[in-house]
């Protein structure tokens, strides 16, 4: 960890706990800051807040009172999920109090370089795959961010010999000041989290924060098939490295003669890749781009790709029961992710979908739904999905109460050779705390069928 006196005797407010808030509060306390923690959950139910209180950190729980700002904070470290429309944050902005997220704090203390990965879809798969490439290539990677350990905890232990691979959301990237990844990867841009950002322009700008502090000695890995990603890349000072599934490039990563190439050099035959789904080619190519920049050999990359079958809840194969294959894609919390999941299969599909209603319709999903045999729907968005399914010409549409019920109904309406796919196209929060909980319930329900 870098020796820094940046926060010594500074008044710092940590807004919102969960894992990142607790880690940030502990680190700031260690750095000599006067830390106050403010969390929505009442102290009686808040074990994390109690633990911080025991080491002498001031804790205010049960709401976000604006009066707390009277303590004259030098900086606020904000939980990424708390929107900037929160009255306390609105007042803080009016008072010109800097607001950062925990990833900025991690960067400030880290001796190791960062690789930052963002995009609307594919972040977790790309992050995990790149970590595996670097591990196989003996490059001493660490993994952090939305996947793995909180970034500032990883950064505390990292040395100059490490490289920190981080999955980063638009929420996290809005709260950076100097965060500068040695390699920044932008996978794709799709309408997402508009309830948080307000407009797509705001969302795109938040994603672009990944690249804004990069210099000429850094690299930005850019999806050449996504115009908005290309526009973000054009604004970066870093050297661009392009990848494309659609055209052959003079430099970068591309497909030719059923091989993935890097700079005119064949890396792996596509048929040898274990990870299913055409959409995963983008994730694979992005990860290859970064791995090659760091000097990982083609042999190490091939060793990983021939055995890596995916990440839990991301088009995860669960089981085969009486000729029906079950896949858990609970991480598909938007339409684009479900579009990609459906197009990953040539078999007939029974789709399990539904969840939190964020106000959008599902018309963009209709072309893919035309290849779906049966639609099993649940949650707040079930009526909207039924409408889209009818417009797609699906005759078999069934309402169910939840994911567990959906598995039984899907199996009862399936035939040998079918794929039964949980790919909800919606967030989980109307019925489940997380997409992981939703996916775990699906897995358990599949195993119960046996």
UniProtKB/TrEMBL annotation:
GO terms for molecular function: UDP-N-acetylmuramoylalanine-D-glutamate ligase activity. Belongs to the MurCDEF family. Transmembrane segments: none annotated. Signal peptide: none annotated. Residues 313-426 form the Mur ligase C-terminal domain. ATP binds at residues 119-125. It catalyses: UDP-N-acetyl-alpha-D-muramoyl-L-alanine + D-glutamate + ATP = UDP-N-acetyl-alpha-D-muramoyl-L-alanyl-D-glutamate + ADP + phosphate + H(+). Keywords: ATP-binding, Cell cycle, Cell division, Cell shape, Cell wall biogenesis/degradation, Cytoplasm, Ligase, Nucleotide-binding, Peptidoglycan synthesis. It comes from the Bacteria. Pathway: Cell wall biogenesis; peptidoglycan biosynthesis. This is UDP-N-acetylmuramoylalanine--D-glutamate ligase. It is found in: Cytoplasm. Residues 117-291 form the Mur ligase central domain. InterPro entries: Mur-like_cat_sf, Mur_ligase_C, Mur_ligase_C_dom_sf, Mur_ligase_cen, MurD. Pfam families: Mur_ligase_C, Mur_ligase_M, MurD-like_N. Cell wall formation. Catalyzes the addition of glutamate to the nucleotide precursor UDP-N-acetylmuramoyl-L-alanine (UMA). It comes from Litchfieldia luteola. Its EC number is 6.3.2.9.
